[in-house]
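note to self: the first set is below, dont mix up w the second
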Amino acid sequence: MVKNPRNYPDTMPGPESGRPMVRGEKLISFMVGGKTFHYRQPGWWCSLDNPDDLEGHLVDDDNLIAEMARRMAKAMVKGEPFTPLLIRAIRLRCGLSHREAGEVFGTGEKSFEKYESGQVRPSESTKRLLWLAMRRPELFTKIGRDSLGIAAVPDKESI
């Protein structure tokens, strides 16, 4: 069952008809660029089973799910290989926070938040780094204070 934010009651009256709404996930369909997309939308719904009955109410993070579904669909229609969810998966696989990923990839502190929300698309050079990070996540680890790219002792001899 879907989490009940703010300890709402088990049922609430619907905003349009006054029918009782329950908390749950409803299969929602929408079109972008002539293609149909489906996703499960958490919220308060009068009917979880009837796809034509869209009377309901979204609260708190429910709206974020709807926004992400639309951004993902737009990215897929445009043929974008690095969708917001894939970028998030790559960052998590590398074990990085948003800020750390921005530092490691050299894109700025807030860049990964924007990539993952779908607000901004990564540059071509960042896409190449993301592709490499998918295959070799161990190369994209946190940058410590001591790892500033200073040549190690064996490297100094070859310079």
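second set (the one i keep forgetting abt)
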Amino acid sequence: MIFNDKLQCHLKSQKSLTSGGAASQDFAARADRRPIGVHHGRRAPDCPTLNMLPQKLVLIALAIGACSAMYSKKDDVVELTEANFQSKVLASDDIWIVEFYAPWCGHCKNLVPEYKKAATALKGVAKVGAVDMTQHQSVGQPYNVQGFPTLKIFGADKKKPTDFNGQRTAQAIADALLAEAKKAVSARLGGKGSSGSSSSGSGSGSGKRGGGNEVVELTDSNFEELVLNSKDMWLVEFYAPWCGHCKNLEPHWKAAASELKGKVKLGALDATVHTNIANKFGIRGFPTIKYFAPGSDISDAAEYDGGRTTSDIVSWASSKAQENLPPPEVLEGINQEVVEGACKDKQLCIFAFLPHILDCQSECRNKHIAVLKELSEKFKKNLWGWIWVEGGSQPGLEEAFEVGGFGYPAMTALNSRKMKFSVLKGSFSKDGIHEFLRDLSFGKGRTASLRSTEFPKVVKTEKWDGKDGVLPAEDDIDLSDIDLDKTEL
């Protein structure tokens, strides 16, 4: 939902319901004020939750619930499930009222017509949803649902929903949501959270996206500075405020922007206002989404070909982010901190044991390191750690991995979470290592458990200076006092 559209709808609806005019009469005609479930001036007790029922009744209730949901896709009441509650309600800027119900509950059935009326009357102003607790119990668990129906209002702060305790009529529900919407608008105008009021030069402003999210509002004036030739990866949505598909995409776009924070930036540009940029990309339909890799120019923009749900967007962008990752650094393991840091939170850590510098001088060693760097680039999507050490300098590592003593260079791979390792049995060459790592990436290869549950010990060593090794100078021995002609028997 576009924020400014909601603001206008909120104000118009509030005015019409309180002015007593024709609009108010029309709403009253749609919303029967007769309370539901009220007996002798008080509301009847709610239906019990599933955990209050005997086991046999629970099974019957679940069977009934599976085939008698009270709302359908034809209604204006949104069916909420374990799969969509996060994206539709919690990640949305919309005001929601959510009913937690059971299909067998009499009070829930009595509420249906009034709830549907409220949903229709509030269309475009606030959202009305329902959760079938016989099918999606996990949705209601965080909210301590004790009876059916339970109605909760999810306002500006989705983490703190409030109970709806008013009469169960369409009018009372609408009044409660309009009051909540008014509070949200007042909070935004009062500076409690961003209202999307960046200086975009957008004319009427009806195309601005709501604030309080990680989506960057892009304009003709800031697009080149922020997106083009940027060090960041960008997904940019070109939208029109009146576009229904754009409105449907918005909560998913915002939720994806939050999940991708720090990895990929998501932006939105109102193509009906900022026509200069939109024309440069030949935008003809809405929404159009384009991908910009780091350092992209206008001609480098690529089409987004993924789905339009939060998970689809996050998955597609994460894949692109991995493709554009710099290769991992191949570090020299000179102390415990360096080695454990390289392996922390990594699925695997690759260890290379290179020959002593006297056995393999700088040119030889650099060739080995170059092979490691080339292969780290090829396998960078795996996000492994890479370490090399000089053979014989780290006895703790060599003992743990059962390598060393002779036969350098050597290679092992460590899963530090499971404390299991695998040893390269083939040749220490680009092809041999590639085959070894490829098998590991597919979960193949023999593994063994470390003898200890602790991370192998690493001793502190001097960092290699990049130079050839030099043999230690031998001490000169003065032979002048030795009588070589005399031999002692």
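remember for set 2: Residues 170-189 form the longest helix (20 residues).
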